[in-house]
Write a structure and sequence with these properties.
The complex is a heterodimer. Chain A is mainly beta. In chain A, 0% of the residues lie in helices and 53% in strands. The model of chain A has no long low-confidence stretch (mean pLDDT 96). The chains are: A mainly beta, B mainly beta.
């Protein structure tokens, strides 16, 4: 069974760093693109970026380029989304999803709250 | 790339059909047959309902169908049921090496 399991909710202060994870199982992790999607409170889905764990080829939406870093460790079948300096406006639910004729499999989401 | 344009809300009575539109440009929706649709219930992760414009993943009822004409894709839900009430998002491949995918703004479906 294909599963994407994300790390737990985080509460951080502005300016702090953060790295959240998405662990894939039940399939060849290196063979499918993994995307990250933001959903701010009460808002729609926003495509942030995507990584191919096989060779770490990574693409970013212009809205998120330079704001976040997407990476992957294929040895442990895990993709990451990280921030070096969080802002209050980063408060949102973040989803990872496997790109496979559409985003067929989704993680459960990681809620990130940034507040002083 | 700009977000794809969807109506903010649509509604229908049980048993009726509704159609949700998703308008892009020739650089995304109109240029590729890679439009997908997602259903999201409150507090849940999105669920893939349609991919490659009109294909249904296994387990998705055939009441859900997708189509495309020019720069506009559509999701049609026939025989509306109460559990279809949710937010729906379209997504399209945009062909850019650096920014390959774009979502629509989302549509709230209300079953009256």
């Amino acid at each position: 069974e294909v599963q994407l399991v994300q790390s737990g909710a985080e509460v951080k202060k502005p300016g702090e760093s953060l790295k959240i994870s998405c662990k894939g199982s039940g399939y060849s992790f290196t063979s499918y693109w993994i995307g990250w999607v933001r959903q701010m409170p009460g808002k729609g889905l926003e495509w942030m970026g995507i990584i191919y764990p096989g060779d770490s080829d990574t693409r970013y939406s212009p809205s998120f380029q330079g704001q976040v870093t997407i990476s992957a460790d294929k040895s442990i079948s895990t993709a990451y989304l990280q921030w070096s300096s969080l802002k209050a406006s980063d408060t949102a639910m973040y989803y990872c999803a496997r790109q496979d004729g559409g985003y067929r499999y989704w993680g459960q989401g990681t809620l990130v709250t940034v507040s002083s | 790339q700009s977000a794809l344009t969807q109506p903010r809300s649509v509604s229908g009575s049980p048993g009726q059909s509704v159609t949700i539109s998703c308008t892009g440009t020739s650089s995304d929706v109109g240029g590729y047959n890679y439009v997908s649709w997602y259903q999201q219930h409150p507090g849940k992760a999105p669920k893939l309902m349609i991919y490659d414009v009109s294909k249904r993943p296994s387990g998705v009822p055939d009441r859900f169908s997708g189509s495309k004409s020019g720069n506009t894709a559509s999701l049609t839900i026939s025989g509306l049921q109460a559990e279809d009430e949710a937010d729906y998002y379209c997504c399209s491949y945009a062909g850019s090496y650096t920014f390959p995918w774009v979502f629509g703004g989302g549509t709230k479906l209300t079953v009256l």
